Amino acid sequence: MTTASSSPSRRTDAAPGHGIDRSQPITITFGGQKYDAFAGDSLASALIAGGNLQTANSMYLDRPRGILAAGVEEPNGLVTVKARSEDDIDETMLPVTSVEATDGLEAFYVSGQGALDPTPDPALYDRKHMHADVLIVGAGPAGLAAARAALQGEARVVLIDKENRPGGSLLSSRTAQIDGTDGAQWAADTIAELSENPDFTYLSRTTAFGNYDSNYVIALQYRTDHLEPKHREGVSRQRVWHIRADQVVLAPGAMERPIVFSTNDRPGVMLAGAARTYTNRYGALPGQKIAVFTTNDSAYEAALDLHAAGAEIVALVDSREKASEAATAAAERTGAELSLSSAVIGTNASVMGDRLAAVSISELDADGALTGETRTVDADLLAVSGGFSPTVHLHTHRQGTTTWNTEIAGFVPNDDVTGEHCAGALTGDFSTQGALDTGTRAGAAALAAAAANAGFDPGSGSGDAKAPSAQVADEAPLCGAEVKPLWLVPSATGSTDDSFVDLQRDQAVSDIERAYGAGMTNIEHIKRYTSIGTANDQGKTSGVNAMAVLAHMIGEEDLGAVGVSGYRPPFTALPFAALAGRERGDLFDPARVTAIQPWHLEAGCEFEDVGQWKRPWFFAKDGEDMHQAVQRESKAVRDSVGYMDGTTLGKIEIRGQDAAEFVNRFYTNGFKLLKVGKGRYGVMCGVDGMIMDDGVTMRIADDRFLMTTTSSGAAAVFDWLEEWHQTEWPELDVTLTSVTEQYSTITVAGPKSRDVIAKVAPGLDVSNEAFAFMEFQDAELSNGVPARICRISFSGELSFEINVDAFYGLSAWKLVEEAGAEFDITPYGTETMHVLRAEKGLIIVGQDTDGTVTPDDAGLGWAVSTKKKHFIGKRSLEREDSQRPDRKQLVSVMSVDKKTVLPEGAQLIAKDADPTPKKGSVQDPVTPSNGQVHSYGFVTSSYMSPNLGRPFGLALIESGREREGEIMKSLVNGELVEVEIGPLCLFDPEGKRRDG
Amino acid sequence: MAENPTTLHTPEPPAVPLDEHRLTPAAHLAGDMEAATVTGARSVSLRELQFPLQIGLRGEIGSESAQLIEKELGFELPSRVGQVTGDPMGLHVLWLSPDDFLAVDVSTRQQPGDSDRYIDALAGKPGHAVELSANRTVLELVGAAARDVLAKSCHADLHPREFGVNTAITTNLGKVPIYLHRAGEDVWRIYPRQSFADFTVRWLLDGMKEFAQDEVL
Questions:
Q1: Residue B128 and residue A735: Cβ atoms within 8 Å?
Q2: Using CB atoms within 10 A of its CB, is residue A230 exposed (0-12), middle (13-18) or buried (19+)?
Q3: Contacts A806 to B, Cβ<8 Å
Q4: What pairing do the DSSP bridges indicate for beta strands A381-385 and A289-294?
Q5: Which pLDDT score, from 0 to 100, does residue A676 have?
Q6: What Pfam families does the annotation carry (chain B) (predicted)?
Q7: Most buried by CB count within 10 Å: which residue of A99, A380, A799, B50?
C-alpha cells in the first residue's frame, strides 16, 4: 500500500463545491491507495479529485472503462466497500457514484461481478410505516417548491431524496440563485424552515425504489453509513420505509444520455452533466483539456462551468447545423473551436495508458453520413450530452404511460396515474424556474386533492401558491428545435463492434444488429436477446439509446412507435437484508406457544412445527434418541398412563337457536340429536366431497356447541363456517367465536388415566357408568381451578382431556404431573400421538389425506350418514367417480421382514414386478427406466410400533380393502421390500381398551 | 423532560384468590420489559396487564340482544369502526365488526363466573357472550416514542389526526394479528392472542431498543 495519492489533486477552489465541507478533510483508501477527500464527497468525486477516473475493466470484453456519470445511473464504476466497523460486512456491486466517502473508508473496484461476503451480517435492518397527505420524491428545486406549497394547514408532507443533502440540480450549478439566495443555501434554508412544522418529514439518503397501487411507495434509507462507525444498539443501518400517501409528487429529475459512436467507452468519456456536477458540487475537476460533444445546448453550460473552474476547453462539437446563442457564447468565452453539423467519431488513448488522449471529429452531411476531413484534437476528457431522459421509472411502476416528446427528444409521463403529480425535469421542462413553477403547482394541487379526500384543513394553501423565483446565469435549458439527437454516429471503419450502447453488459450496436438480423424487431425481444438493460444499472443510460438504434435499423422515425421498455421496481439495487428487516433469527416468524411451554422447555423437549405452533415432538430422557424416546412414550401410554399438551387443537364456540342445524350441515354424520353433555366425532368435507377436517364437537347446551378442529386447519375451518353463514345461510340464528386460545388442553391417556383424573378432580365421579366415553363434565380441579373434562380418545386408550382457561394451563399440567407420579406418568409428544393413533387406524387430515380422499376412502364410511338429506359434499359423494371400487383406500401396511420402516411416500408396486424385464414381458418392471411402472398407491404414515412389535404404516392403495392379506412390493433405498396389506386398525380392533 | 412512562401505565388491580395458580402469557418476560424502559424525551415502556376481564359479545346493534347487553354494561355498544365506548381505564367495549365486540375491564382481575351475567342476559336470544379473558393478553406500550415503536411494524395510520385517544382497531403488528387500542395520549394497548404473546413482547422490545440511543435521523 502506498501512503499518499500518486496523482495530483484536481480539487479547485474556483468552483463552488456545494456538496463538500472543505473544513472537514477526510482520507479514504481506494484500491490500496490513500485519497484525500472532504466530508460530503462521493467515492467517485474523491477519486476524480485524486485525478483517477478509470474504473475496473469491463466484465465481458475486458475493455478499460472510466466513470461516466455522477449518479445512480453509473454503468462502469462498481465497487466493493470494506466493512466499516465490527457491526458491518463487506458490501459489493455498489455504484462508485452512490457511495458516500467517509473517513477511513476502504473500497476497491470490481469488474461487473462482486463476491458476497460470507460472514454473517451483524448490522440491523428494519422497516417503518409512514402515512402522508403528500409525498414528494426528489429534493431538487421542483420537490422543494412542491413541499413549500403542500405544507399548509394540517397537511402531513414527506419529502424523500436519495442524496445526502437537499438541492438536486442546484448543487451542480455554479450560478443558480433562488429568491436572491445561493441555490444550495436556499435548499438548506427551505428544509430548515419546513422542518419547524412537526408534520413535515425530510428523509435524506432515501431512495424511493418502488411505487405501487394507491400511492404506496417503498423507499430505502441509509441511516448510519455516513456516521462515525460505532455500535448503536437497536439502531438500524438501513431502513425500508413503507409510505402510504394520499397524493404523490414526483420530482426525480432527468438522466443524461451518452452518445453512441466508435470507442465511446474510453476512460475520460463522461456525461457533460456529470463533469459539471463533479466540478460544482464537489470542486473536483475531471479533466484539464476538455472536448465537448453535444446534441443540445445543455453541454454549453457545462463547458462554461468547467472553463470557469480552470479547465481548457479544446473543442465544441455540435450535431446541429446552426450555432445556437449558447453555442456562440460558449465558443467566444472559452475560445474553443465550434464544429457544427459534426460528431466525435472516435477516441484515442495515449501510449502511456488507457485514458482518453485525443478525439477525432468529422463533419456529417444532411443524411448523417461522414463527410470532409477528420481532424484530431488532444483532450483528456470528452464531455458528451446525447440529451436527457426524464426519470419516468416511478411513474411507470404504476403502469403510467409515456409519450415521446420530439422537442426534448425524451419520453415524458402522461397524466394517467391517480393521485400523482409530476414536476420539474420529469415533465420535460429542464429550467430552474420551470422546476420551481411546476413544483409549486404540483404541491398546491396535491394539497388541495389530499385535503378534499381526507377532510383536513389545508389552511391558506388552498389559494394560488406563489413560486420562488430563480436567477441563473448561463442557464441553457433544452427546448424546441435546439435538440438534434445523434442516435448512431457512423464509424470511420464501418465496424460497430466498439460503438457501445450498454457499457455494463458490453453490448454494442453490432449486438443489436445481430438481434435484428435474427428477426427481432420488438425492443422487449432485443433486450432479452442482447441482455441490454438487464445489468445491475438496469440500463439507465442505455435504454433509450438501444431503442433509437433499433428505430434507426427498422426505419422508424418516431421513437414512441418503437415502444418504451417499461420499468419495474426496484429503481436501484437494494440488499435482501434490508427487505428481510428484523424478520431474522428469533424474530423470523412468530412461534406460537402454549401456556405449558415453560415446562416443555425445562423438560428439554424437541419441538415440531405445526403451522406457526411449536408442539412438543418427543421428550428424550437420559441420552435417548428420538426413536428410543418415542418407543418408550408409546409403550408407557398403552401400559400405564401418559399426558400430552393438546392445546393447539382449534376450538370454535357455536351458539344460537339454529346451532344444531348449522353444525349438522357441515359434518357428514348427524349432530342434530346429539345430547347436551355429549360429544361426537365428525368428518367435514369440502363441496367436492373430499375430507377437509375432522374433530369432536360437544353440545354444551341446547343452543351451544364447542367444535374442535385440527391444529393447522383451525383458521380455515373458522373461515369456512363464517363464509357459509354469511353468504348462504344468513337466516340461521348462529354466532361463531374462536376460543382456540382461551383454553389449555391436557390429554391424559392410558389404562391408569382414570386414577389420575380422580386425583386431579376429586369431586368428579370418574366411573364408566357416571362418565361415559364421549361425554364431558364441568369440574373443579384440586387446586380450585374450574375445568371442563372430556372423555375423548385419539389413542384407543381410556383417555381424558382437561380444559382450563389458558392462564391456568401450566398449573393444571403440574397437577397432572404430581397426580400421575405414582403411575410413572409419561409426557409424550406429537410423534407418539401419531404412532398411537396410527395403530388404531385413525387419520390425520393432511397427512393421510391430501384433498382427494373421501370419508369412505379413509375408512370413515361409517361416519357418513345415509339418512341425512343434506350435508356439504353429499352430492359429490354420490357421483359415480366417488364410489369407484378401485379408488385408493386407506389400509395398513407391514414390511414382511418385520424390520423395514417404510419411508412415508414409498410407492407400492405389483408383487411380481420384474427387476430385469425381458423384451415382451407382461410383468411390470421395477424402475421406470425399464418401462411403465404401475404404482398402486403410497405410504402416508409409517412408524415403528413397540405395541405391535414391528414396523407398520398406513397407505392409500387402489382397492386397498380388497387386498387385505395380499403381498405387494416397494423399492426402499434401492432394495425391493415385500409389504403385506392389512386392515386399517391393527391394535385392539374390538376397542376393548377404550373404557379402561 | 417527558414524564416517566412507567407512571402512565394503567394501575394494577388487586390480586384475587386463584392468581397463585395462573400466569399471564408473557410473565416470563416481565423482567425484560422492566429493564427495557426508556426515559427522557423519547420515553417508552412495555407492561403486561394482569388478567383484565375480557368478554366476547355478539349482537346486531339495535336488536333486543344488543339492548340486553347494553343494559348489563350500563352504556351503549360502539357502532362504528374504531369506536370504543365506556371507560378506557375501567369497563369499556371495543368495536371489532358490526356485530362483534370485546368488553374489557382493566380495573379488575378476571374471576370465574364474571361473564355469567352477560351469558344469562342473552338466554334464549340471538347473539353471544363468551368468556375470553385468557384468549388474548393485553400489553401496554406507553411513552412519547410509543407511536414510533408501533409504526415500525403496524401499517395503520396512528397519527393523532387520524387515530384519536380511545380509538381501537384490529390490525397486525408485523405478522401478529392484534387489536390496538389507544387508551390515552401516549398509552397504547396491544391485544395479541396468548400464543403470540412471547413473540410479540420480544418483537416490541427489539423495536424499543433504538430509543435508548441518540436519535439517528
A1: yes
A2: exposed
A3: 25, 134-135, 194
A4: parallel
A5: 97
A6: SoxG
A7: A799
Indicate left, alpha or beta for A623 from its phi (over 0: left) and psi (-120 to 50: alpha). Answer: left
Least Cα separation, residue B150 to chain A (angstroms): 9
The fold of the A21-110 domain, in CATH, is: Ubiquitin-like (UB roll) (3.10.20)
Kindly identify which residue of chain A lies nearest to residue B153, measuring between CA atoms. A128
Q: What is the rounded distance in angstroms from the CA atom of residue A395 to the CA atom of residue A381?
A: 34
B195/A592 CB distance under 8 A: yes
Q: Which of B16, B19, B20, B22 to mutate to test the interface with A (most CBs of A within 10 A)?
A: B22
% pLDDT > 70, chain B = 99
Closest-CA residue of chain A to B149: A128
Instruction: Return the pLDDT at A18.
Output: 97
Report CB contact under 8 Å: A737, B195: no
Best residue in A615, A735, A785, A804 for a mutation probing chain B (most B CBs within 10 Å): A735
Domain chopping of chain B, boundaries: 5-14+27-49+135-210, 52-131
* Predicted pLDDT at A558: 83
CATH 3.30.200.20 fits B52-131, yes or no: no
Residues of chain A with pLDDT under 50: 1-6, 480-481
Contact B63/A at CB under 8 A: no
Residue of A709, A727, A726 whose CA lies nearest to A717: A709
Nearest residue, CB atoms, B51 vs list A236, A244, A807: A807
Which H or E run contains B71? helix B64-73
Distance, in Å, from the CA atom of B103 to the CA atom of B73, rounded to the nearest integer, reads 9
Are the beta carbons of B208 and A234 separated by less than 8 Å?
yes
- Say if residues A526 and A542 touch (Cβ distance below 8 Å): no
Phi-psi category of A685—alpha, beta or left, where left has phi over 0 and alpha has psi -120 to 50?
A: beta
Amino acid A840 reads K
Give the closest residue to A875 by CA, choosing from A851, A852, A854: A854
Closest residue in chain B to residue A732, using alpha carbons only: B126
pLDDT tens string B162-208: 999 999 999 999 999 999 999 999 999 999 999 999 999 999 999 99
Confirm or reject contact between B123 and chain A (CB < 8 A): no
Say if residue B115's pLDDT is above 90.
yes
Would you identify the CATH topology of the domain B5-14+27-49+135-210? Gyrase A; domain 2 (3.30.1360)
Q: CA-nearest residue of chain A to B194?
A: A741
Q: What is the mean pLDDT of chain B?
A: 96
Rounded to 5°, the CA angle A325-A330-A333 comes to 125
Q: How far is the C-alpha of A30 from the C-alpha of B147, rounded, in Å?
A: 43
User: Would you tell me which residues 26-45 of chain B have a C-beta closer than 8 angstroms to some C-beta of chain A?
Assistant: 28
Contacts of B157 in chain A (CB under 8 A): 131, 244
- Region of residue A891 (phi > 0: left; psi between -120 and 50: alpha; otherwise: beta): beta
Domain covering A125-254+392-471 in this structure, CATH number: 3.50.50.60
Residue A360 and residue A347 in contact, taking contact as beta carbons nearer than 8 Å: yes
Q: In angstroms, what CA-CA distances link A402 with A399, A560, B34?
A: 10, 8, 56
Instruction: Kindly report the CATH number that applies to the domain delimited by A493-554.
Output: 1.10.10.1100
CB contact under 8 Å between A582 and B206, yes or no, is yes
Q: What's the pLDDT tens digit per position in A17-38?
A: 999 999 999 999 999 999 999 9
Put simply, the answer to whether B157 touches A242 (Cβ < 8 Å) is no
Contact A741 B202 (CB under 8 A): no
Q: Would you state the pLDDT for residue B174?
A: 96
Q: What is the pLDDT of residues A194-229, one digit of tens each?
A: 999 999 999 999 999 999 999 999 999 999 999 999
Residues in chain B: 217
Q: What is the pLDDT of residue A1?
A: 40
Tell me: the pLDDT tens digits for B144-155? 999 999 999 999
Chain A touched by B134 (CB under 8 Å) = yes
